[in-house]
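User: ok so my PI wants both of these folded by tonight, can you help

Assistant: No problem, let's get them done. Here's the first:
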Amino acid sequence: MIVVKVGGSAGIDYDAVCADIAERFKAGEKLILVHGGSGETNRVAEALGHPPKFVTSPSGYTSRFTDRETLEIFEMVYCGKMNKGIVERLQRLGVNAVGLSGLDGRIFEGKHKDSVRAVEGGKVKVLRGDHTGTVEKVNTGLIELLLNAGYLPVLTPPAASYEGVAINVDGDRAAAQLAVALKADALLLLSNVPGLLKNFPDEASLIREIPAHDVESYLEFAQDRMKKKVLGAAEAVQGGVKRVIFGDARSARPVSAALEGAGTVVS
């Protein structure tokens, strides 16, 4: 069982990701694909006159402030254009993929955070009206139903709150919770860099290996969104996932390359 998370930033080769997954799935491997869509969401939000607002927490994590209008744009892109674009690619490759959001069947479920603490101008402010949260529960029954019937699940945020409200959740940490819940053998976090870089953006400074017991000490090397990936990796290995690999989604056969050790391997 392998959980693959592919990001939504510029430069990602979705055709290569889907071709590699299709080949492995047809060979009998059990795979689940989780995807993002941040870059396209930013573009669409700008075009609709509601540009994205990013906030930085006091602990240094950057996230999207998700008011209701932003959430609706987020759903249009993640659940619509991105999800169905990936499902279509897989269908054309002969894989019977099923695209669902974490809201569907409460696949991803967690607590709704209505307010967020953000650093603005050197001061900590509390912003209200946020629709975010963290995945705490995974509906493995629905995922296993699909896998056992021969389907390939293609999953995306948002998640459902315990009250049934759509919430924006981090895709990397959602994929980590999914991998833990399904007792996956490996979690692949693919993005537009070759892995965790010691001196970002110098790709020659790739960190090849991270010991599983020491993941959080590598947070200092993570820039921006990579911080959430490292956090997700830490949560996955603490939850029993044997290997987490930060891989490059710009290359040919990105899933196979990552499983063969290209990128940053956490084990």
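One down. Here's the second:
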Amino acid sequence: MRGREYAELEAFVAVVEEGNFRRAAARLRISASSLSQTIGKLEARLGVNLLQRTTRSTSLTEPGKRLFDRFRPAMSEMAIAVEDVMQLQGRPAGTVRLMLPRLALATQIEPWLGAFHEKYPDIVLELGIEDAPLDIIDAGYDLGITLGELLQKDMIALKLGPDIHQLAVASPDYLAAYGVPQTPGDLHGHKCINWRKPGRKKLYNWEFCVDGRWISVAVEGPLIVSHRDTALKAAAQGVGIAFAYWSSRWMQPMIESGSLTPILEEYSPPFPGWYLYYPKQRATPPAVRALIDFLRHCHQEA
């Protein structure tokens, strides 16, 4: 296979994995028009249409699907082979794609970005911030971070850090004006800040443990958000009661400063926290293995 032919196939795989020409072009560091021309040359050389293009989406034709299913694993094997050779020099290299929610980014990854780059300067770490649940394989990621209760089946999982818990919080002024709820059921008489998980239609029901049994409470209030750090900021301004994961990044400073007060703590026990997960495969690329081992070491030391 000549270099030009491989470049065309690499461009084709990038378009399929990214879902559109703009993101694929950014990944390949070329213009969208150049990428379109490259795909056109590939289709002309093969004599078939590989992609169905509309103004809003790009999808595979049947010949395109057959080519993608056969070539993508081969391309991955070639990348692994190159990385294996570089591993002989003791320096893993290549791109590692990690998908994770915003809160996991803040607590599980951001504190160690500098140390990881210093140790592995030849690895390009791509972070995909996705609060909506996605299949990491279909989305083209190597690894993901999610809560233990949301782990996908048939994945290898590594626990990162301790268990976590959610807390209801409100500003001192709000509690002085409207009273302090004593049980989860009391929330029905309060202004609550609702959360809609990205990608979901229904509002999230707040979860508490009562007499050893988990219950869900549907609440009402003047504000609905898709990111719970916004809910915390609104609660600090007296909008109502928020319910969010305890974190040293967002919640803890607001509690320590006195802008938020925890409530219903006895009904909020810990549960399995964050997990790094990745698919079972015959050979894990060295760069991916380097990130796995690095995060394992960081969280053992923390």
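Residues 62-87 form the longest helix (26 residues). The chain has three domains: 3-83, 91-163+273-301, 165-267. Good luck tonight!
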